[in-house]
């Protein structure tokens, strides 16, 4: 371990794997603070449909990167990385080891691999043209074109995320270079310990279904209705957040409620499979733990102690 590098613990896992509650327990034991690595948690308008930690949970441990952005002004990964890099330094200087928690693959990989993310100036005219093409012919077709021009970028960008699909094409067409090649990797800036939660796929799917039922009973549909009324419909559709997009289609009369719920389940399962591709079980940089292990907290604390306090 390079003692000159700041320390950072990452807790990752698929959606509905129990990261948030376990992270709170870890942070309390370590007397530290949590940095969210969930891109959906950034936006203060989305709560129920993102399964964001409750106000009671947030009061137990200080959380960062939650409710700090507006849907009208979406953040780039570069903005997120810049903010968090400063925060990691501040917490280390205060004698705390930050606990980064989430399932957004790009956010976590950016810190594990020290991505160098170029800030390319927006070409608004080109972006507007691509938006118009997407609206006329379908953003799925735009994503198919991205897959032809840059298969690696298309693999990591969900076609439902219209904003990121358009941004990738904008960068490719304005620079002549693949979007995926403009993000360079380097040696991590941190003394890292990466902890992963592992579930059997069938059990995880059961947890996902239960979470969807809970969100709907907690008023998810009403949340979407309120966001549409407040003028966020276009922003939600461009971002393509699972659950919100499907319920908007239902409210627009395109599909029934039963069809919307079926699509939410199906698309969440697809998202889980994409998360697995980001963090593979054979990755030697990740220490995997059985999420059902009753001793998981103690086992993680033991590993953290060996890594950071007994070296």
Structure description:
The chain is α/β, with parallel strands linked by helices. The protein has 14 helices and six strands. The chain has helices spanning 19-30, 55-60, 77-93, 105-112, 124-137, 139-149, 151-156, 162-175, 201-217, 220-229, 233-239, 244-251, 257-278, 296-308, and strands at residues 7-12, 34-36, 63-64, 99-102, 191-198, 286-290. A six-stranded parallel beta sheet has the order 3-2-4-1-5-6, sandwiched between helices. The protein is globular. The mean pLDDT is 90.
Q: With helices defined by DSSP (H or I, 4 residues minimum), what is the helix count? A: 14
Mean model confidence by pLDDT: 90
The profile of the biggest β sheet is: 6 strands, parallel
Order of helices and strands: EHEHEHEHHHHHEHHHHHEH
List the helices and strands and how they pair.
Layout (H helix, E strand, L loop, with lengths): L6 E6 L6 H12 L3 E3 L18 H6 L2 E2 L12 H17 L5 E4 L2 H8 L11 H14 L1 H11 L1 H6 L5 H14 L15 E8 L2 H17 L2 H10 L3 H7 L4 H8 L5 H22 L7 E5 L5 H13 L3
Task: List key phrases describing it.
311 residues, six-stranded parallel sheet, single chain, alpha/beta
Quick recap of the structure?
The chain is α/β, with parallel strands linked by helices. It is 53% helix and 9% strand. The protein has 14 helices and six strands.
């Amino acid at each position: 371990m390079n003692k000159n590098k700041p320390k950072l613990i990452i807790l990752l896992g698929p959606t509905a794997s129990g990261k948030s509650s376990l992270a709170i327990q870890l942070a309390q034991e370590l007397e530290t603070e949590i940095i969210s690595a969930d891109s959906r948690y950034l936006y203060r308008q989305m709560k129920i449909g993102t399964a964001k930690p409750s106000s009671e949970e947030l009061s137990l441990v200080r959380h960062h990167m939650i409710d700090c952005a507006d849907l009208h002004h979406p953040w780039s990964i570069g903005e997120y990385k810049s903010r968090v890099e400063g925060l990691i330094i501040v917490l280390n200087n205060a004698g705390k080891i930050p606990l980064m928690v989430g399932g957004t693959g790009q956010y976590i990989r950016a810190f594990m691999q020290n991505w160098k993310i170029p800030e390319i100036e927006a070409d608004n005219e080109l972006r507007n043209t691509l938006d118009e093409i997407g609206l006329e012919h379908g953003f799925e077709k735009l994503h198919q074109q991205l897959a032809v021009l840059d298969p690696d970028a298309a693999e990591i960008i969900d076609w439902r995320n219209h904003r990121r699909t358009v941004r990738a094409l904008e960068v490719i067409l304005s620079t002549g270079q693949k979007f995926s090649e403009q993000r360079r990797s380097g040696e991590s800036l941190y003394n890292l310990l990466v902890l992963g939660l592992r579930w059997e796929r069938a059990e995880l799917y059961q947890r996902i279904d239960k979470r969807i039922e809970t969100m709907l009973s907690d008023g998810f549909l009403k949340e979407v209705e309120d966001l549409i009324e407040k003028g966020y419909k276009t922003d939600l559709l461009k971002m393509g957040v699972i659950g919100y997009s499907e319920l908007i289609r239902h409210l627009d009369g395109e599909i029934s409620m039963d069809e919307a719920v079926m699509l939410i389940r199906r698309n969440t399962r697809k998202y889980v499979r994409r998360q697995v591709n980001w963090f593979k079980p054979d990755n030697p940089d990740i220490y995997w733990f059985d999420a059902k292990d009753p001793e998981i907290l103690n086992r993680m604390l033991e590993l953290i102690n060996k890594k950071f306090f007994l070296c």
